[in-house]
Amino acid sequence: MTNFSELSTRVKTATLLITALVALYVIAIITDYARWLFLFTMFAVVCVTSFEFATVCTSERGLKHKAPLYFIVCLIPALLVLVSFLTVEVSASSDDYYAAYRHVALLAASAGIFISFIITITYGLFLGRDDREVFAIVNREAPLGIFHVGFCGAILM
Q1: How far is CA 88 from the centre of its chain?
Q2: What is the pLDDT of residues 88-141, one digit of tens each?
Q3: In the chain, how long is the greatest CA-to-CA distance?
Q4: d(C-alpha 146, C-alpha 126), whole Å
Q5: What would the DSSP string read from start to end of 55-112?
Q6: How far is CA 78 from CA 8, 46, 58, 74, 110, in A?
Q7: What is the pLDDT of residue 17?
């Protein structure tokens, strides 16, 4: 059973975060200086949502050893996008300035998804060698977090 007082707190927090992100996004559109602030803020949001996903998925069944796996694999696509933006330098005078950043981000997010799936399958095989149900649970839940938290967060960045 879900505790509705906890749900109310989560809805209030989500409303506050969404409002702050929309305001930050508008500021980032108006000025070029807020672009990096928006990038790091979105990465912080992906970190929080990855932790939340890991906590929710592992608290129901009591399998606490999956929480670090879920946190890490959800964070990898966004982390690679952040690193790619920090390391790739595109000339602002070129015509395809934003297109180059989009291509770099999409490539980094795709590589992050691939790496996350490899880690998930390896972890599932390692843990599921004695218990097939653990392998099935890990390979059913982790892709959901990788796409909904990791990939969507990376694309928003």
Answers
A1: 20
A2: 766 556 556 566 667 777 888 888 888 888 888 888 777 666 667 777 777 777
A3: 58
A4: 19
A5: HHHHHHHT-GGGHHHHHHHHHHHHHHHHHHHHH----TTSTTHHHHHHHHHHHHHHHH
A6: 28, 7, 22, 8, 10
A7: 79
Q: Which residue has the tokens 């109310």?
A: 8
pLDDT at 5: 63
Lookup: tokens for 33 = 């200086």
Phi-psi region of 105 (alpha: psi -120 to 50; beta: other; left: phi over 0): alpha
pTM: 0.69
Alpha carbon distance 37, 21 (integer Å): 11
Cα–Cα distance measured from residue 54 to residue 142, given in angstroms and rounded to the nearest whole number: 9
Confirm if 143 and 117 have CB atoms less than 8 A apart.
Answer: yes
Token pair for 66: 């999956």
At 34 the three-state DSSP class reads coil
Cβ partners under 8 Å of residue 69, min gap 6: 54, 119, 120, 123, 138, 142
